[in-house]
Amino acid sequence: PLPHALQLAENMLAALGKNNSIQPFLVIFSDGKANVPLPGAGGDAWRQSLQLAENLKYPALVLDTESGYVRYGKARELAAALGGEYLSLQALSASEITETISERIAI
Q1: I need a surface site. Which of 9, 66, 87, 103 has the fewest CB within 10 A?
Q2: What is the pLDDT of residues 33-43, one digit of tens each?
Q3: Are the C-beta atoms of residues 3 and 52 closer than 8 Å to each other?
Q4: Element (H or E) spanning 105, and its range?
């Protein structure tokens, strides 16, 4: 579930942040749909996702996996909440995905 993944990312990135030699970069492959709230938290999974995304203070790239005729644009909203970049996977080949991520993390 998206809120749980964002919470785990926040915990992992915070732990990495203690080591100043590492510059974390978050890459999210998602359609942005959130349908399961955090365990014990109840409530709206999408709002939880946006709140967690806004709390993450790391460079981020959201690769939108949504496909089909009807699209909701949730991944774009997630990228905005993260203050990160948004790209649609449908517009990229496998090599372009690899190149895009490599450029962002400066390999």
Answers
A1: 103
A2: 998 999 886 78
A3: yes
A4: helix 94-105
